[in-house]
Amino acid sequence: MSLLVVSLAAALALPQAAAPPSPEPAPAPGAEALVMSALEELRKGELFLDAAALERGMAASFTVIEDASRVSGSFAYLEPIRRLRERGGEVKELRFDQILVRVYGGSAVATYRYAKTWFEVGVRHREQGWSSDVFELREDGVWLLILRHRDR
Fold first, then answer.
1. Residue pLDDT, tens place only, 20-37
2. Domain 29-151 classified CATH 3.90.79.10?
């Protein structure tokens, strides 16, 4: 009997393992496909210099971080696109490759390699690198772009 009491006392004195954290809610079925679709709509908006289409897919507080600089607000991001279109600029190519989308409840991250070629005042420009886009799910089911980080 005393051995049982000692064993029980020793067991109670051991630190209890913490309960594993509750898992995050599973994303809604098809959430990754919806984010991919939102990303494709944004790609087309940038390809065609369609600021109105881009604006529909991004939050007003959208922020882009690129080349150690930051642009905050969708207006600040979209105005140069509007001006480029007004000056006759043209995007010849905009590819998103190696796309990986992860959904975490009401947010999602899309990471991809991009390549962009455009002409501005007759001068050809080319840019390529990696991008990570963060999306937020609105209450009406629309995925909005809230942050973009690009690295060349």
1. 555 555 666 799 999 999
2. no
